[in-house]
Amino acid sequence: MEAASLSGVLSYTKFSGSSLCNSDDRFSRSIPRDRYIACVSRHSFEGFNDVDKPSSKALVASSSDLNTQNHTVLKGSNLSGGPIQKRNLNFQANCAVGVCTFGENVVESHYAHATEEKLGVLLLNLGGPETLNDVQPFLYNLFADPDIIRLPRLFKFLQRPLAKLISVLRAPKSKEGYAAIGGGSPLRKITDEQADALRMALEAKKIRANVYVGMRYWYPFTEEAIEQIKRDKITKLVVLPLYPQFSISTTGSSIRVLQHIFREDAYLSRLPVSVILSWYQRQGYIRSMADLIAKELGRLANPEEVMIFFSAHGVPVSYVEDAGDLYKDQMEECIYLIMQELKARGIGNDHTLAYQSRVGPVQWLKPYTDEVLVELGQKGLKSLLAVPISFVSEHIETLEEIDMEYKHLALESGIENWGRVPALGCTSSFITDLADAVVEALPSAKALSTSRDTVEEAEYDPLRYLVKMFFGSILAFILLLAPKMVLTFRNHLF
């Protein structure tokens, strides 16, 4: 497990170049009932370097205040022996005993000697449309996030117009997908159930805590959960993203929202907080995944001949190569650990990893799930077990994309026996391990300083800037009108 403070959690990635964007702007969400929520923060970033070959050591993070580095091994309930990628990470944090806490930005909490401690756990997730009418505004919220569509700094003002255009164009196809799984995403219901199960697991450990759910792009929004945390007068908070592996586009995006909220609020800036950045190495998680895989293998004929096919959500290659996203390294490490656990149980099946859910013309992590399925079928593979590795809840990418699209493609390509491992959901061993992770993170909770991070502005050519602003303004105007033009044209045709 890796945990960190809000102030230091995202201070290690350098965003630069035409495909990347500093997220210091505010953007409005497309939300029913005319609600407006804008929460994106601004930070300084340092680059990753020195990516080594796999080693068997635990993740080593460097703790620094931008200039000095103190390397500390992150310990905790992790499995060792896998190919972890070592990087030179620049956290503004002090790391010890499995968690990272605040560096020089720490201030002593006024809750430290509170007579009655009230613990809170905040589960972070993506969110999903609950009805077909929610699909387009949900997509707008998704693509309006600068961590999802990463524009150059000079073109950040195009974020909302571009999000509007993409959401309108993609909504019809997305509605078909959600209609196929019952008319909406089950993610909120499942996450609520996980929150209840986690609360009961903590109670079994004699720890009373309120467990909250905060979604990034739909109800209940993270901002709403934070408001409830304030109303409940929580005195210590553990933030637990429901993403096993860290990515800028998932955990990173959600943490940015929290950073902005906490920085602007006097109460929250003094609230002791511990953030669990990733937990893909935890024994409970690895064993829970191995349990599900072994169970589903047993359902298939000739289980020893079945290919174990891990399908993970993809991210653009630029996130990894340019921005230093840890996602690919952590995903490969995670699968290595799961296969090691299976081998210890006498299961030595062949396995492979591919990435799904790519969007747009940019290059995403390869190999692609659809292409690999076709290739395996052409090579004569007859039995396959699909494992959705980056998802802990059922949603459209498991229920529709894997269960319908990829299953159809696999059978059409010559694969005869298809199986699919369910998402972890409320599996008891998984929930118990999450509770253990929360307990381990509690001692590291520290209060957030109210000081603002500073960002050194990049130099730019004034003439080039004016030219881009002129043509960018024209493009923004076109993009703002484009959704209405598309709808008018479609209505005219049909």
Describe the structure.
It is a single chain. The longest helix is centred in the last third of the chain and has 32 residues, at 462-493. It contains 13 helices and 14 strands. It is α/β, with parallel strands linked by helices. The relative contact order is 0.16. The protein starts with a strand and ends with a helix. Helix 1 crosses helix 2 and helix 10 packs parallel to helix 11.
Which descriptors apply to this entry?
alpha/beta; globular; 494 residues
Identify low-pLDDT runs: 10-77, 80-115, 450-460
Structural class: alpha/beta
Please work out how many helical segments DSSP would assign.
13
The strand line-up of the biggest sheet is 1-10-9-7-8
Strand count, sense and barrel status of the largest sheet are: 5 strands, mixed
Give the overall pLDDT as a whole number.
Answer: 78
Strand content: 5-15%
Radius of gyration over C-alpha positions, nearest whole angstrom: 23 Å
Brief overview:
This protein is of the alpha/beta class and 494 residues long. It has 13 helices and 14 strands. The longest helix is centred in the last third of the chain and has 32 residues.
